[in-house]
Amino acid sequence: MRVFPSPRRSVRLRLSLLYGVLFLVSGTALLAVTYLLLFHTGGSVYMPGPEGADALPVAPASPPAEKAHLEDALRDQRDADQRDFLLQGGIALALMTVVSVVLGWLVAGRLLRPLRTVTSTARDISATNLHQRLALSGPDDELKQLGDTFDGLLERLERSFRSQRQFVANASHELRTPLARQRTLGQVALSDPGATVESLREAHERIILAGRQQERLIEAMLTLARGEGGLDRREPLDLATVADEVLLAQRADAARRGLRLSSALGPTSVTGDPRLLERVIANLVDNALRYNVSGGHVEVATGTSEGHSVLTVSNTGPVVREQDVERIFRPFQRAAADRTGNDGGIGLGLSIVDAVVTAHGATITARPNPGGGLTVTITFAH
């Protein structure tokens, strides 16, 4: 089996060798330039000129034989100087190359120290200690930004894991209640010695009702998971048409609750999943009807603002505190208990809205109305 070197050591070694090669190349070039400047300037002998004048090259005043002997001696001396220069320069260059590699190894190790911290922390982190952070110190350079990005990723993962665990716990609790009710109804009906057809029929109807509650919860959970998983398809549609179809289906419920349902639907086009967007509007309207006051109203509007398609759902109802606005968009979180009758909600309506809106690249804002109730606005991108 092939054993691969540690990435840290490989990068450190390559950086060290790169430092050494760069120093060797630049040192060789410097040695060559110095050699050319020192020993290729010509063979003339320079003597001082008259006082105050520049030095000019003159030929030596000596007999031809003596002149030739002097030139040979100068040439031999120059050749010896060249050899000594090249030898000593080469030795110095080799020594400094080794020194540069060693220094490069030390500097690379210091520079790669944050990466070792990232690698070690990433290796140790698991689902049980996502709270651990790198918290790199030092200047705001690329390595510091890498560490901060990794910390941000860990923070998002920790929030996701915490939300998932809370969701599973809440879903288990919500499913356990109708299951326990079904079991109790069945046991009571079977243990009744004087049971009649009518009593058994009533017990079975109540069991079926509890089963429908489970179906609604499971369907809502599947819709929430689908919204958080992204979109499988996109197609252009008129948001006003989708909202009008939802309102037609909700008018009977509004009348039963004694609420007024009004609309101002201006045509506006968006691109997305029609079924999910229909579920968004239905959940918003259903939430506005459930959490209302007797004689209240619900208003639904669609249109365009600053080039963006906008959906707004506003209702009367109990006063919602600013600090509770974000909470009601979490799974299995409900509004205040003051509402028109038994709400029958499962606590996933606004969570589904938030997930689907995010999947469509839109933004959702909610603000409490001064007299009570809530105004939810969804703004779609171009």
UniProtKB/TrEMBL annotation:
Q: Where is the Histidine kinase domain?
A: 170-382
Its Enzyme Commission number(s) read 2.7.13.3
- Chain segments annotated as transmembrane: 16-38, 85-108
Entry keyword set = Kinase, Membrane, Phosphoprotein, Transferase, Transmembrane, Transmembrane helix, Two-component regulatory system
InterPro entries listed in its UniProt record: HAMP_dom (IPR003660), HATPase_C_sf (IPR036890), HATPase_dom (IPR003594), His_kinase_dom (IPR005467), HisK_dim/P_dom (IPR003661), HisK_dim/P_sf (IPR036097), Sig_transdc_His_kin-like_C (IPR004358), TCS_sensor_his_kinase (IPR050428)
Reactions catalysed, semicolon-separated, are:
ATP + protein L-histidine = ADP + protein N-phospho-L-histidine
PROSITE patterns cross-referenced by the UniProt entry: HAMP, HIS_KIN
Q: What is this protein called?
A: histidine kinase
This protein's source sits in the domain of life called Bacteria
Instruction: Name its cellular compartments.
Output: Cell membrane
Where is the HAMP domain positioned along the sequence?
109-162
What species is this protein from? Actinophytocola gossypii
- Which of the seven top EC classes does this enzyme belong to? transferase
